[in-house]
Amino acid sequence: MMIHSYDFKDRDEYRASFNRLSKLVFGIDFEAWYQKGAWDDRYNCHSIIADNQIIANVSVSKMDLVINGESKRALQIGTVMTHPQHRGKGLSKQLMEYVLETYEDTCDLFYLFANSTVLDFYPKFGFTTLLENQFYLNLSSQPKDKLNLLDKLDVSKEEHWNLIKRMLSSRKPISKHFGITSNEGLFQFYALNVFHECLYYSRTDDAIIVFNQDGELLHLYDVICDKQIDMEALFSQITTKQTRKVQFHFTPDQLLDKVYVEPIDKHEDVLFIRPFSDLGNLPAFCIPKLAHA
């Protein structure tokens, strides 16, 4: 068995093996993302291969963050997986140690999101939990339904896909408290696999808006634009008569004096950071949902 670097993405047999493992463990497939050209060199896989099959993997995503207005180079660890037949052999430990040693001098911090079954694993590598928050805004009035003023995007249409790529390349971070300046690849993964029914283009703001309505609650996931958008004005385009409350899946800088804040839901993945340093003093924040690897 050997650790194989990320360049296997262009080798069909290894990429197919990686996809089989990711579907088995997470139920996700990276093939459409690859075929669209969105799997770039900012997403790097480090895998253990046995009998020409990928049996364990730890990936890193190179991230440019804005934290309290300061630029940070970060590496987000994700797609940590081991084939069920090879668990208990320390393969994830081996890969984690390799990744941390390899990238230690290339970034200001590492971070990752972990589910409740592996919360004891990451502290062994110097990671500390950092509490995120949820931001909600109660709406005092319900504007008329204006969804028809938005253009629904279809990722299968080349012109729509090209629009998404163009706007991602010049976007402003959604937040200066905790924002991302370079998540083109991750956003495209979500656009293809998770939020393809939630993508809209606003001609009013020349912005891509990712949202969906769940009863009286509107989930606002992201706003892609090369300038700052007036969030309250945006509501007139995306809320309906039924909307009573908005949940922001990022830190809504403009509305921090109007929103109410709650700890992140206990069922959500937990954020781990290394090194912890001064990040423990951050005010309430939420890492943009569409930047989770």
TrEMBL record:
The UniProt record lists the N-acetyltransferase domain at 1-156
What InterPro entries is this protein classified in?
A: Acyl_CoA_acyltransferase (IPR016181), GNAT_dom (IPR000182), YpeA/RimI_acetyltransf (IPR050680)
Please verify whether the record's keywords include Acyltransferase.
yes
Which UniProt keyword terms apply here?
A: Acyltransferase, Transferase
Keyword Transferase assigned to the entry: answer is yes
Q: Which SUPFAM superfamilies does the record match to this protein?
A: Acyl-CoA N-acyltransferases (Nat)
Source species, domain of life: Bacteria
Name of protein: GNAT family N-acyltransferase
